[in-house]
Write a structure and sequence with these properties.
Number of helices of chain A: 0
Distance between the termini of chain A: 35 Å
Number of strands of chain B: 10
Structural class of chain A: mainly beta
Radius of gyration of chain B: 13 Å
Largest interface: A-B, 24 and 20 residues
Order of helices and strands of chain A: EEEEEEEEEEE
Distance between the termini of chain B: 15 Å
Radius of gyration of chain A: 13 Å
Strand content of chain B: over 45%
Shape of chain B: globular
Largest sheet of chain B: 6 strands, mixed
Shape of chain A: globular
Oligomer: heterodimer
Number of strands of chain A: 11
Chain lengths: 113, 111
């Protein structure tokens, strides 16, 4: 296992289109997090899962956003009817209680034109 | 070495000098803190962490100091190298398990 993997690395989409991102966490990690990062800012929490249960969602996660982790392994983040303000880096991280640190993936850079 | 008393968005140091990056955190109940390094186009990379029952922790060339009285965290990098150039973020662990990130500091290392 080489770490947290995110796909795609880059996505350019037209406003109004739907997009879906995938995150594959480190296999033994039962917690998975999604963050959004805009230029010059720190990552902002969106949501997290413990196994397949979505335990917390940020107010940043409007009803156009949905995240799933159906089998407690990989996760998807879908954005419907994208807006220009959705342009950002979407980061995934995983961890396990008792471990040090949270391991981040390289992110998916979304550009909405 | 060069230090920053308050958080500044950019810190410029000479190669070989020591760097000190400061961070103020928000929640006095936070019990776990992490420093991350982020290079352009990459995700944050774990550097070092510290729990609230400690006030200092050392790693390889890095030291984290925690002052719970004033809710202040600092990262010291010894003998700063060009490869240390990046944006550095502190993060605190909320009681729900999510990380809350502070403002980043861009470290520029001059050769």
């Amino acid at each position: 296992d080489t770490g947290v993997s995110q796909d795609p690395r880059h996505k350019i989409t037209k406003r109004g289109q739907n997009v879906t991102f995938r995150c594959d966490p480190i296999s033994e990690h039962n917690r998975l997090y999604w963050y959004r990062q805009t230029l010059g800012q720190g990552p902002e929490f969106l949501t997290y899962f413990q196994n397949e249960a979505q335990l917390e969602k940020s107010r940043l996660l409007s009803d156009r956003f949905s995240a799933e982790r159906p089998k407690g392994s990989f996760s998807t983040l879908e954005i419907q009817r994208t807006e220009q303000g959705d342009s950002a880096m979407y980061l995934c991280a995983s961890t396990q209680p008792g471990l040090s640190g949270y391991t981040f993936g390289s992110g998916t850079r979304l550009t909405v034109v | 070495g060069e230090s920053v008393g308050l958080h500044l968005p950019t810190l410029s140091v000479q190669e070989g000098d020591n760097s000190i990056i400061n961070c103020a955190y928000s929640n006095s109940a936070s019990d776990y803190f992490i420093w991350y390094k982020q290079e352009s186009g990459k995700g944050p990379q774990f550097i070092i962490d510290i729990r609230s029952n400690m006030d200092k922790r050392q790693g390889q060339r890095v030291t984290v100091l925690l002052n719970k009285t004033v809710k202040h965290l600092s990262l010291q990098i010894a003998a700063t190298q060009p490869g240390d150039s990046a944006v550095y973020f502190c993060a605190e662990n909320s009681n729900t398990g999510k990380l809350i990130f502070g403002q980043g500091t861009t470290l520029q290392v001059k050769p």
